[in-house]
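Subject: mismatched residue count in predicted assembly?

I count 212 residues in my input, but I want to confirm that the predicted structure covers every chain. Input:
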Amino acid sequence: MDRNIKARYEKRANVLKAMAHPTRLFIVDELSKGERCVCELTEMVGCDVSTISKHLSILRNAGIVSDDKRGTSVFYSLSVPCVMSFFSCVESVMCSCNAPVDKLAK
Amino acid sequence: MDRNIKARYEKRANVLKAMAHPTRLFIVDELSKGERCVCELTEMVGCDVSTISKHLSILRNAGIVSDDKRGTSVFYSLSVPCVMSFFSCVESVMCSCNAPVDKLAK
DNA sequence: TGGCTATTTGGTAAAATAACCAAGGAAGTC
DNA sequence: GACTTCCTTGGTTATTTTACCAAATAGCCA
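Triage response: the counts match. Full output below for your records.
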């Protein structure tokens, strides 16, 4: 594979890699409903704040979310809404693969 | 986060994780043009056959591609074409990352 | 100022990922 | 059956990812 073409696929893969984690997928899903601050997301996910902060920085570096500092809080929002289209496709991948999602989520 | 909901996001993340690799992204892109056998993909990518085989099994387990053995060859094809819609969105994520210079300057 | 809250960053250990080589089938040919 | 080709699987090693704790930073308010 050509060097330039390889670099192109690497860049694309980085965006997908940023999404490819359950917690980050949850965050994206949540931000699609509106902006949330770090403490809100931490509360919802139920893990260490530092962990959420790092997930958010991965999403920010990928260009998927953007941050807005107001007071002591930092509010994150979805900067590229089209990533939400991934969900419906991912659902259809899972469906075509085998059983419905609710049966998988035991 | 609820146990069931977490399992749901894990399942979704697995699909994205399967796509989140330059070589696998290339394979998906190539298969969108038509079925290819392992040796063809190996030739194009230029790495060990076993590596390509493992990438393909990851994509197959995720439900993204399907295989068809004919003779000694195994032909892979895209089983869920909607994943191609990822590409255009990923491109726009990469573009939007460079666009808002004023926000980056903060 | 000092204390309080919200967030980020550094460090560490465990787990997951990826690439190669080598060995193990399966299917076609002689 | 023996031989070849195509592909998959097991094993090893290097790299990356992830989660937590601890410490640092930033903004508010008494």
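Residues 21, 23, 47-48, 50-51, 54-55, 69, 71-73 of chain B lie near DNA strand C (CB under 10 Å from a C1'). Marking this ticket as 'not a bug'.
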